[in-house]
Write a structure and sequence with these properties.
Layout (H helix, E strand, L loop, with lengths): L1 E4 L3 E6 L2 E5 L4 E4 L3 E9 L2 E10 L2 E9 L4 H15 L4
Antiparallel strand pairs: 1-2, 2-3, 3-4, 5-6, 6-7
Length: 87
């Protein structure tokens, strides 16, 4: 499932890898994810992602339009299940 996001293009779970961005995509193994969640801010949905990249901890976010709420919640649930080892 691919969910459109702004400004980064899209977010997608590809097997055990979370992929996000536009053009040169960022690909993060689920094992390196620390947190993924949806927050509501300024009337929009904000997808918050925290992950390990080598020795660094990285945090990023992307806006998702309200019309994609169900798909976004399904995607985040699948990622969280994979993070817990039940996906």
């Amino acid at each position: 499932m691919k969910v459109p996001s702004w400004p980064s293009g899209h977010v997608k779970l590809d097997g055990d890898v979370l992929e996000f961005g536009a053009g040169d995509l960022t690909r993060v193994p689920v094992a390196d994810l620390e947190k993924i969640e949806v927050k509501e801010a300024a009337g929009r949905l904000s997808l918050k992602i925290a992950y390990r990249a080598g020795l660094n901890n990285v945090k990023t976010s992307a806006w998702v339009e309200e019309q994609h709420r169900a798909d976004l919640n399904e995607l985040v649930g699948a990622v969280q299940a994979a993070m817990d080892g039940s996906g």
